[in-house]
């Protein structure tokens, strides 16, 4: 007996590839890219529904991807290359580090592009010399401040805030013992948060260096997303998707998170939220994908379990599309609206 078509099959688009999908990402123009473990990127222009174009980018594995300033994407790989990819498939090499891995990439709309290899951070911008910073241990993650004037760098022992405009500006150290695996800056610029090796999130309110500690996770937080105008931070790492409130000056201090997507059978492995509305995409290690309205407490399963664990999710800047991929090479694109 045939199974009824899923909501994704009825309304969206789906593709099956042969490699692990590391990352899904929209640029500011709502173009979409998927980075794969075979070193390729798959490009889909905004509003298109055809099979995404395959572009051979890295010799072996793509390790990191981010939107480029304007349109297109920035990618780093284990071939030591940091490149910028245009929607026409053109590739511009930004830097090459022989024998190294480009673990993390990021960019800002002001034109600055960042990448890390080992202990070093590199900042590129047109018309000036590159800025290089070195840290005491391997860089765990990077994130620009909302205005692009600073960049947060996670590493063992804490997070360091560095100027993106001057190599001479003194960095600011946010210290916390332990291994910091990724970092994010709140859209209102008031908080910097780090996901830890110890199944928790540590954070700092920058105006007074007040510490935050967010715990209760079953495993490490590997995916997070600011949504609803920056009022919430959704996270993976549990049988639900904790959504921490950041509406007030104190952030989540004294508040419990909303917990959409509760699932007794699977762990949440990826999240992505609508930039403006309280809508959240939730992906699980059994392949299920759910969309939740956290204010109305309503949820709908758009993809049932299967096709591998969800490894990545992204919500387009215009709020119209949710993209996701799995460790078995299954990719989906679903139309959503606020």
TrEMBL record:
Query: Keywords, A to Z?
Result: Repeat, WD repeat
Cite the Gene3D superfamilies for this sequence.
YVTN repeat-like/Quinoprotein amine dehydrogenase
Q: Does the keyword Repeat apply?
A: yes
- At the top level, the lineage of the source is Bacteria
Q: Which Pfam families match?
A: WD40
Its recorded name reads: WD-40 repeat-containing protein
Please tell me the species this chain comes from: Franzmannia pantelleriensis
């Amino acid at each position: 007996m045939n199974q009824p078509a899923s909501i994704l099959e009825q309304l969206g688009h789906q593709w099956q590839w042969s490699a692990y999908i590391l990352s899904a990402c929209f640029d500011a123009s709502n173009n979409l890219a998927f980075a794969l473990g075979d070193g390729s990127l798959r490009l889909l222009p905004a509003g298109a529904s055809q099979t995404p174009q395959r572009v051979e980018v890295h010799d072996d594995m793509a390790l990191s991807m981010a939107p480029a300033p304007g349109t297109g994407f920035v990618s780093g790989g284990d071939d030591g290359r940091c490149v910028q990819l245009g929607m026409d498939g053109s590739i511009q090499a930004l830097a090459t580090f022989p024998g190294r891995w480009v673990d993390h990439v990021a960019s800002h709309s002001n034109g600055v592009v960042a990448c890390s290899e080992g202990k070093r951070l590199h900042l590129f911008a047109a018309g000036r010399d590159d800025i290089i910073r070195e840290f005491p241990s391997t860089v765990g993650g990077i994130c620009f401040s909302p205005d692009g004037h600073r960049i947060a760098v996670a590493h063992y022992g804490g997070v360091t805030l560095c100027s993106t405009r001057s190599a001479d500006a003194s960095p600011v150290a946010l210290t916390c013992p332990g291994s910091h695996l990724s970092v994010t800056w709140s859209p209102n610029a008031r908080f910097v948060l780090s996901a830890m090796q110890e199944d928790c999130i540590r954070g700092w309110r920058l105006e007074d260096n007040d510490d935050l500690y967010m715990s209760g996770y079953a495993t490490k937080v590997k995916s997070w997303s600011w949504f609803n105008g920056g009022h919430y931070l959704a996270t993976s790492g549990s049988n639900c998707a904790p959504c921490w409130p950041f509406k007030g000056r104190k952030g989540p201090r004294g508040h419990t998170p909303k917990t959409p997507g509760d699932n007794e059978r699977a762990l949440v492995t990826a999240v992505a939220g609508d930039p403006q509305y309280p809508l959240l995409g939730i992906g699980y290690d059994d392949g299920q994908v759910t969309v939740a309205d956290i204010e109305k407490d309503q949820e709908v399963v758009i993809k049932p379990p299967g096709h591998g664990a969800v490894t990545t999710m992204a919500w387009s800047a215009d709020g119209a599309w949710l993209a996701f991929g799995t460790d078995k090479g299954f990719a989906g694109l679903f139309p959503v609206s606020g």
